[in-house]
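pinning this so it doesn't scroll away 📌
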Amino acid sequence: MERNPGVDRSRTEPESIKVVYITSLGHSGSTLMDMLISSHSQVVSVGEAHQIGRAPETTPCRCGVRPGLTCPFWRAVAEDFEKVTSVPFNQIDLEDTTTGHFEEYNVAFYTAVCRVSGNRIIVDSSKNLSRLVGLLQTPGLTVKPIHLIRDPRGVIWSSMRKGKNWVYASLQYNVLVARTHYALRSHGITPVHYEDLTSDPMAVLEPLMKKIGLDVEETQLDWTSGPRHNFGGNEDTWNSEDRTIKPDITWRSRLTRLQKAGIKLLTLPVRWLNPPVRSQNSSAGQNSW
């Protein structure tokens, strides 16, 4: 969203920047989580920032401008970034930790976004765990990690639609969820369950925004409105014109009883790590874990 157009960009220093980083498996609701948080008046989102230097030139900005990097917002960010790094903005790799420029490029990127937007809190829904670990070790950034978790049957059904075997996908789910939990447990990670978020979004947002340092705003539930400058994200979520938040429970009718029982059994080792806090009135969360 475009806010505070008259802001003095020189006043936004790296040490004042907060990055709310959403890590999750695919199809776990990260785009929805991103849009709900960044609908706050003091927050700006970049979406899946790691895509910026690698996306096809035709990739649009979510404000509708195509190519996305010709959007006035991203042109201003690019100008600021290139002044600091002397690196072409459309060639940046914000994930590469092998060249020694990881900290420099990421701090310059977030600083430019803050200066252009006028907001000091940025949502990054890149999901990539290794990049998050690198950011947590980067001086000059305050990183607030959110681990978004979805019922394994929903995640695995999405994998099956792409041709993956459900047994393999279940074991992969265990590995990735456990790796995230243990990599971040000493960094004040905030676990959020997709089922909780979609059954009572305000109950999830209120404590979450307090951890970020802000009070929740009622307008955050109007998550489909306003111009945004994100890259990437779930197309179905982005194209939705209905602000009603509804869980995707397609897996219930598509998985067989054997598959449902098998997935619950195979993912038992990680399901106890972060049990969901479901609303008592939730139909989305019933029997989900």
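📌 and the second one:
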Amino acid sequence: MRRSAPWSWLPVVPLLLVACMTGDDVENVQGMLSGGPRPDVNPVPRNASPPFRYPVSLYAQRVQGNVTLRIFIDTTGRVHPESTTVAETSGYGALDTAAINGSRELAFQPAMKDDKPMAIWVLYPVHFRHPDAPPLPGDSTRARDTSQPTPR
């Protein structure tokens, strides 16, 4: 008789757990598997202008790029900078660093679920655009946003 590997029963464990769950438990597990519960209302930025500072040397060279940050917004709307990471790099370390540094100044109205504030992870895009440089592939043809990060 062939002996099965000691871990061969592991695929059965999720089935056993699901059989013992209530409807709320199943919803919570589905939320965890899909990235967490979804808010009824997404967080809304409170900043009057973007807090991102275009690195002066890259601005002078008309270097442009997009950085996507993964940020954690708590129930008060505060961003936890120690949790901020670059989810998608611009390809320029200085732009990535400027985006991370600027995220420390972000403030939000918190996300809401069932009329209660909720903490949430979000992907937050930061676009560094020089007013005299050509648009990047994927940029829209509409007028450029004048509230872009400023060189400092």
